Amino acid sequence: MLVELTVKDLALIKHAKVEFGEGLNILTGETGAGKSVIIGSIALALGAKAKSDIIRSGADSAYIELVFSVKDEKTIEKLRALEVEPDEEGTLIISRRIGASRSTSKINDETVTLARLREVTSGLIDIHGQHEHESLLDANKHIEILDEYIKEDISGLKQEIRDAWNAYHRDLKRLESFDMDPERLLRECDFLRFEIEEIEEAAVKPGEEEELAQRYRNYSHRKDIAEYVSEAYEALENTGVSTALSKLEEASGFDRELIPLKDQLYDAESIISDSLRSLSSYADNMEFDEEEFAAIEERLDLVRNIGAKYGDTAEKLENFLREKRERLSELTDYEENKKRYEREKDESFARLTELSEELSKRRKAGARRLTEKISLHLKDLGFNSVIADMAFERKDKPDAKGFDKAVFTVALNPGEAVRPLNEVASGGELSRVMLAIKTVLADTDDIPTLIFDEIDTGISGRTAQKVSEKLVLIAAKRQVICITHLPQIAAMADIHFAIKKTETEGRNVTSIDRLSEEESLEELSRLLGGARITEAVRQNAGEMKKLAKEAKDRVY
Hints:
Blueprint: E1 2-10, E2 13-19, E3 24-29, H1 35-45, E4 61-69, H2 73-81, E5 91-99, E6 103-107, E7 110-112, H3 114-121, E8 125-128, H4 130-134, H5 140-149, H6 151-176, H7 182-202, H8 208-237, H9 241-252, H10 259-285, H11 290-310, H12 314-332, H13 334-380, E9 387-399, E10 402-411, E11 419-420, H14 421-424, H15 427-441, E12 449-452, H16 461-475, E13 479-483, H17 487-490, E14 495-504, E15 507-514, H18 517-529, H19 535-555
């Protein structure tokens, strides 16, 4: 569950820290106080699109941090499958910093992309706001809701269908590769033989390119060394030290001061003579075979050319060669193999159809159970004569998801004909339909935290009371965070927060505070009485809190 939210420099929030708890967490506040910013900040931390104008005026960046406590084994297994590991205490930290030009997201201090962030957090929180209940207008979402409800019954079957679809698709592609006239068949066979012969004649061995490249480098260096040694020998040989020494010997007979210089030149001549002998010996012992060097260079060029055309490792070449031999063998018996592949394609399609029929059967049975439960909850939510069902249609042919198209159909009022949900429901009605669906799915889905925003759109009175009871039912099984302006819902709070907007240093600032029992009662009185809170209003709020506790005791 979500245990902590920290928001800094976002919209009207300078700094806010909220510690959520188990059960039903209620957030209330006056219009314009910034309730939507709180839920919006969570959505941003989960990877929602961010605009730079949400950064608080005067700040360089906005920062949101979510701290989760993950104890459920199923959730931990899902995270591990995504290579994410909570710490020893089950803590997982999600953070996002939004700057003027870019944003940075982290999971446990590891920087991640937004796509990665959404993938990981999709199993931690489900935010239900106006956008989510309006998703019911998309008929494609309806089959997803049904499949989520019956997932225990169909998950294995859906995987079999995906496998069957892949097999059929493979067989179809293979058969399409046999759709050719005799001339094209001849050309492809000739080209296959050419490729096979070229690879076989090259006979590239594992590691051969690396070995040849090393030998080529060694030979290249030998050639350079031989040239340098030869040039060094010539340079030493042409120093003229011997001539200088003979001249100094004659001169030293006339001037004895030249004797030390003569001795130095004598030593130099000795060193040069030794060096010349050493260089000559090195050159005599150094082997360089021009023919062998040329052969290495030629072979290396061939191996690299083959690698560039067919595969840069011996393993890839072998795989390529095997594929081409298999293809040539297939085309050699063209007519017989084409008939065989047609038969296999028909068999894989029959298998896909059979599995899709079974999936459709289970979906229709599940749809009856789902819509019966949805109808019951909708009646509690004020639709006394509701009729809910699912209408199924079949695609022209099955695909990786079967061949069902399904849409929720309803008659929300007496005397109405049953029609697709997206044709008959208003925004407020959609909100209640989604709540009914969420209540039913609370027994089946694994998402530990649900957030409800605008769940109370267009309702009041008895219907509001029923909505609050549905939220309690959901909160009994998972954490619920709900923004509301209705006292019937706020009274059910296990933890109550007030969102306020105040003026500080000439600027509006949004804050969020956890309320004590007495403060919660006062906030509930404000929701009931508005600007003028009388003692009668307070008594009414107290009675509402008492009835709410009795209702929760029956559930919890």
